[in-house]
UniProtKB/TrEMBL annotation:
Signal peptide: none annotated. PROSITE patterns: ABC_TRANSPORTER_1 (PS00211), ABC_TRANSPORTER_2 (PS50893). GO terms for molecular function: ATP binding; ATP hydrolysis activity; L-isoleucine transmembrane transporter activity; L-phenylalanine transmembrane transporter activity; L-valine transmembrane transporter activity. It comes from Vagococcus carniphilus. One of its GO terms (biological process) is L-valine import across plasma membrane. Keywords: ATP-binding, Nucleotide-binding, Transport. SMART domains: AAA (SM00382). It comes from the Bacteria. GO terms for cellular component: plasma membrane. The keyword Transmembrane helix does not apply. InterPro entries: AAA+_ATPase (IPR003593), ABC_AA/LPS_Transport (IPR051120), ABC_transporter-like_ATP-bd (IPR003439), ABC_transporter-like_CS (IPR017871), BCA_ABC_TP_C (IPR032823), P-loop_NTPase (IPR027417). Residues 4-256 form the ABC transporter domain. This is ABC transporter ATP-binding protein. The keyword ATP-binding applies.
Length: 258
């Protein structure tokens, strides 16, 4: 079943069509890659899917239990509440806060108690708070960050900060996770570990993932399907082995790695 459908999506910045007439789908539980040379429009497409930008034309449709819901023009926090979560290419953590607090803040809104219960600190408040902390610890453990829970985010290594970003995105319990260059700045060992982590969380949390990445070893390893953008337009779609040998894609990457 298509969980997300993108129909004829276009985003113009002045005279530049950063994303032009793009059609794509994400099936439930798929792990899909989005690749393309620098400036191809990948991040702009993510921004359109997560409400940061409004499309100039076209639709973003989310299939819910009852219907197809149009996401165009909906604010990012509302889109997050509908189960779409993301990381950013430039890491966006609360650098002065602890690792644990960074995760707990992302979970704000998950506390299942009313205002009065919170104000009066009734027993159910503590039960809910305990559950939220347990969830945060569980995620930090998966991403090998348990021992760093009290460190300030700014004191983590670059690779750890990238992992914490993913933990924060997962803390909102998404259906669809958008990862924007999760391996950027990582060394080969960290990238290999991240590759396994991405596969693991997809299964463990029943996720549908769309992933932008320049590291082709990671993309070819984890993705079931890949979309390729060039100058804002989709130039190819297919399985990793099809993309690797696609002449148009090779041409787009000429001088780069594929
Ligand atoms: N807010 C903006 N205003 C004007 N132009 C923009 C804006 N955001 C992106 N662009 C332009 O749109 C095009 C696509 O940019 P985008 O960042 O989406 O590409 P990308 O594929 O993510 O690139 P990279 O791989 O380098 O991150 C570029 O030409 C960029 O300069």
């Amino acid at each position: 079943m298509s969980l997300l459908k993108v129909n004829n999506l276009t985003k113009n910045f002045g005279g530049l069509a950063a994303v032009s007439n793009v059609n794509l789908t994400l099936e439930t539980n798929e792990l899909v890659g989005l690749i393309g040379p620098n400036g191809a429009g990948k991040t702009t497409l993510f921004n359109l899917l997560t409400g940061v930008y409004e499309p100039s034309e076209g639709d973003v449709l989310l299939t819910t239990e009852k219907e197809e819901e149009r996401l165009n023009g909906i604010k990012p926090f509302k889109i997050a509440n509908k189960g779409l979560s993301r990381t950013f290419q430039n890491i966006r953590l609360f650098k002065e806060l602890s690792v644990l607090d960074n995760v707990l803040i992302a979970m704000t809104g998950k506390q299942q108690v009313g205002v009065l219960t919170s104000l009066l600190r009734l027993p159910s408040f503590y039960t809910s708070e305990k559950k939220i902390k347990e969830k945060a610890y569980e995620l930090l453990a998966i991403f090998d960050l348990s021992e760093k829970k009290d460190s300030k985010a700014k004191n983590l290594s670059y690779g750890e900060q990238r992992r914490l970003e993913i933990v924060r995105a997962l803390a909102t319990e998404p259906k669809i996770l958008f990862l924007d260059e999760p391996a950027a700045g990582m060394n080969p060992q960290e990238t290999a570990e991240l590759t396994e982590l991405i596969k693991r969380i997809q299964k463990e949390f029943d996720l549908t993932i769309l992933l932008i990445e320049h590291d082709m070893s990671l993309v070819m390893d984890v993705c079931e399907r890949i979309y390729v953008l060039e100058y804002g337009q989709l130039i190819a779609e297919g399985k990793p082995e099809e993309i690797k040998t696609n002449e148009r894609v090779i041409k787009a990457y000429l001088g780069g790695e594929l």
